[in-house]
Amino acid sequence: MEKSKNKFYIRTYGCQMNKYDSEVIKNLLLKLNFREVSSPEEADYVFLNTCAVREHAEKRVFGRLDSLKGLKRVKPDTVIGVLGCVAKYHPELIGHPVVDFLAPPDSYRNLIQWLKTKRKGTIPENENEEYSDIFISPNKISSYLSITRGCNYFCSYCVVPYTRGRIRSRPPEDILEEAQSLVNSGTKEIILLGQNINAYHYNGIDFPEILKRVSSIKGVKRLGFLTSHPGDLPKELFSVMAAFDNITNYLHLPLQSGSDKILTRMNRGYKLKDYIKIIEEARNLMPDSNLTTDIIVGFPGEKEEDFQKTLDAMKRIRFDQAYMFAYSNRKGTLSALFPNQVEKKVRKQRLQRLIYTQNEITREKARELIGKEREVLILGEGKKGCKLGKDRNGRIIMTDGVAKIGTEYIIKINKVNGWVPFGGIKKEA
């Protein structure tokens, strides 16, 4: 392949796993003399790495493809590919006027050879792909590290098992080698990733054990993970989190609904009382833990009384933050066939009520930090000349612009902007 014809641009949509996958793709390309550029207009190859979990994310991708029609007219030799979950979920996109190829999530090893042929079509996937021997090197203070791929939970609304397949766990030695590589490249915070990360299991090694092993690598200042499922949290997990100083006391645990009826229809595998028991155990061992969640409103069959139970659960549990969504139908999922679909207007109204309730709780919890000191790792630039960091519970903290990226400071919180705590530097940690 000519070196003058190897410039690529990649745009990532969706979750942290997609961001990690984009780094895997970059690694594959850069090793073969491809060069990343900052705009589609400069590129010979344009890649859109996509998400199909929600309709909104899909629409953004379709809109972006339509916007590339002009580029394709001016530069018809530009190769445009749709990567990730939308490529698997919408095979008909190969008929889109600007799309040259589709690359589903487990096809990236075959990408380079496919680009050389410039064929139109869908790149074949590799069965049980783990990308075990491909180590990313993003040269960032905070980096993701995937330890599982896929999911065995078939929640009735979710396309992930269909787009990313069943769960596969990476060998521990590969995980540890990649973690060490990240530390060597300057990473201080590692966030382990998996669609259901607490289901990690490889030859007798479970998730708490791999968490301990990664935390023991010299130079790992912060270690977090995403995302857990309430149905199978390992019993030892919270004690491990509490025992290791560099493991953040941060838990993202999707609730999805406060109504047992809706949880059953969602096929979540637990009831509200089970979820609350988990939270009580976590807070007992980690009193200052940072808890976030996902919640869906307007699920088929959700009545006002079901929604009220979700509001009540939110007020009782008092999440630090929540990622809240109105239900969107995904073709091929069980819930798309359910009767009693909730009107779009009602879904939107319930979502606004939920957001308002959670925002009040988030502000209150942020104000509780005023006057307290936190050990904060500075991760990057913030707004208006400030620096952005995280404390040992994974909370975002803003501070003075003089703070050095990659350095830890003792910061005293003196105010809250919106719901983001802001503090002054007392000293280096």
In CATH terms, what is the fold-level topology of the largest domain? pyruvate-formate lyase- activating enzyme
Indicate how many domains the architecture comprises.
Answer: 3
**Shape designation:** globular
Helix proportion range: 25-40%
Terminal CA distance: 50 Å
Share of β-strand residues: 15-25%
Q: In the CATH hierarchy, what is the architecture of the largest domain at level 2?
A: Alpha-Beta Horseshoe
Question: Number of helical runs?
Answer: 13
The CATH homology group name of the largest domain: tm_1862 like domain
Mean pLDDT reading: 95
**Count of extended strands:** 21
Low-confidence stretches: none
Description:
It is a single chain. 42% of the residues are buried. By secondary structure, the protein is an alpha/beta fold. β17 and β18 form a beta hairpin. It has three domains: 3-122, 3-Layer(aba) Sandwich (Rossmann fold); 142-367, Alpha-Beta Horseshoe (pyruvate-formate lyase- activating enzyme); 373-428, OB fold (Dihydrolipoamide Acetyltransferase, E2P), CATH 2.40.50. The model has no long low-confidence stretch (mean pLDDT 95). The N and C termini lie far apart (50 Å). It has helices at residues 16-30, 55-67, 69-74, 85-89, 111-117, 160-163, 172-184, 207-215, 237-243, 260-266, 272-285, 304-317, 344-367, and strands at residues 7-12, 35-36, 45-50, 79-84, 101-103, 121-122, 142-146, 148-149, 168-169, 189-193, 201-202, 205-206, 222-226, 250-252, 290-297, 321-326, 373-381, 387-391, 396-399, 408-417, 420-428. α12 packs parallel to α13. Helix content is 32%, strand content 24%. The protein is built from 13 helices and 21 strands. The longest helix is centred in the C-terminal third of the chain and has 24 residues, at 344-367. Strands 2-1-3-4-5-6 form a six-stranded parallel beta sheet, sandwiched between helices. Strands 17-18-19-21-20 form a five-stranded mixed barrel.
